[in-house]
Amino acid sequence: MSAPFGHRLADAVAARGPLCVGIDPHAPLLERWGLPDDPEGLARFTDTVVEALAGTVAVLKPQLAFYERHGSRGLAVLEDGVARARAAGALVLLDAKRGDIGSTMDAYADVLRPDHLLAADALTVSPYLGPGSLQPAVDTARQYGGGLFVLARTSNPDAGTLQHAVVDGRSVAQVVVDTVRGWNTPGWVVGDPLPDPGAVRDVASRFGPATGSFGVVVGATLPELDVDLTGLGGPVLAPGLGAQGGSAADLRRLFGRGTAVVPTVSRDVLAAGPDPAGLRAAAERWAAELTG
Ligand SMILES: O=C(O)c1cc(=O)[nH]c(=O)n1[C@@H]1O[C@H](COP(=O)(O)O)[C@@H](O)[C@H]1O
User: Fold this and answer.
1) Relative to the CA of 155, which ligand 1 atom is closest?
2) What is the ipTM of this complex?
3) pLDDT tens, 116-135?
């Protein structure tokens, strides 16, 4: 088994900085890069991004939807891109937002197994079927040293319609955060009393050490941080930067300078292609802003 994802992420962030770049080959971006909207165009786009960035950024986050729309040939492009990104030293977070009943979730989580054709380091998952439905993915992640990022407070404007709903005095988003805090606490399972936030000793940031393998997604677009991340013990993936309006200043406003935050940018970096130097410069600009 590889080392636990949380440890590998902390090492990657220490060596390369916290930036995650999303690989989102939208049809308009392919066109802008002068590429056809077909598997060949997809392959050239993916190769270019991987070659330009996999040796320098901590995490690459391919968005599965943009590969699936090209059918099996698109998935073959993704398999190749994921393998090459990992070989070049980037962690790969597969953005698939999976969520289903346990038996199906178990199959989705197979992507965290090293022998899977798409073998990724971590996976985004949706908790809509209830925190317990994600348990098979937690088990697979633990077994193979993988990670999960669970949607908690997403970056889209109407996300609060569901995520602010209150269940037994806690918002849905808070239930998600508390569950992930539990998964980062040894021995805890869904249904147990919630672990004390202070139980995870806070050494790296006010959100706890970034060494847990289970993280949450909290958008950089939120007007205010309306979930309590204290003692989370794992990373916070923060999308919504650039194209969705979020900025480095928003990240600082929402999260302070906690090292456990992994900011992720897709279009705002990818628009600088297809020149690899342009892509690298755009990623470096974001990295500088985020750490500045
Ligand atoms: O899980 C995600 O990555 C995610 C969660 C969220 O709340 N908002 C969000 O935009 N994302 C993803 O992050 C990427 C954002 O792309 P850009 O807006 O181009 O940076 C897309 O692939 C989204 O699917």
Assistant:
1) 7
2) 0.99
3) 999 999 999 999 999 999 99
Any ligand 1 atom below 6 A from CB of 121: no
DSSP secondary structure string for all residues of the chain: -PPPHHHHHHHHHHHH-S-EEEE---HHHHHHTT--SSHHHHHHHHHHHHHHHTTT-SEEEEBTHHHHTTHHHHHHHHHHHHHHHHHTT-EEEEEEEE---HHHHHHHHGGGSTTSTT--SEEEE--TT-GGGGHHHHHHHHHHT-EEEEEEE-SSTTTHHHHT-EETTEEHHHHHHHHHHHHTSTT--BTBPPPPGGGS--SSSTT--TT-SEEEEE-TT-SS--S--TT--S-EEE--BSTTSB-HHHHHHHHTT-TTEEEEESHHHHTT-SSHHHHHHHHHHHHHHHH-
At 25, which CATH number? 3.20.20.70
Domain that includes residue 46, residue range:
5-291
Domain tally for the chain? 1
- Please tell me the residue having the least CA distance from ligand 1 atom 24: 63
